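hey m, so remember when u said the tokens were messed up on ur end? i reran from scratch. heres the input so u can diff it against urs
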Amino acid sequence: MTKKQLKELRVESLLTAAVEEFLEKGYAGASVDAIAKRAGVSKGGVYHHFPNKEALLMEANQKLSEPVMEMAERAYLNSSVMEGLRQYIKEYLNYWVSRPRELSFFFLSMSKALEAPALMEYYREYVQQSTAFFVGMFQKAVESGESELTDPEAYGISLMGALDGFVSYAMIHPEEDIQLLAERCGQVWLK
């Protein structure tokens, strides 16, 4: 194994340990010592990769966001814009509903962002990228003739917000069929 691969493996181990520790004890209750112990490294080993606990939280959020960004890339490459968006909606809802621990971590991080400017800035950028994706997809649909929307920006912003509402709804109502929820979302937003 190369040095780069070993470093990536250590960082991955630290991020996994951090997520578990944050979920179990909350941000305030989690300590760098406990994260180090979970990851099987020294406290100095943690600080070698991350300057502080907040940096661990931010990096863990970025890691958990990667699959969502990959979903957006796949949707964008679909030859049909609207089918790409339908695919994205299904994947997005399935991703979060099938990962309640990651979703809990996301909610924990959002509450911490209210008091951590750097984390709030990360979320602003994430929301900006997500919104730009949806707006761009709706503009592309209008340009290609797949849709006659008059305000792609309004649709993009509102679909982005609605999807997280659908995720919350699905978590509160686990008896609901996630595929049916995805179809209903598509019926409203993908005309």
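this time it looks ok to me. The chain has a mean pLDDT of 92. if urs says something different then somethings off w ur setup not the seq
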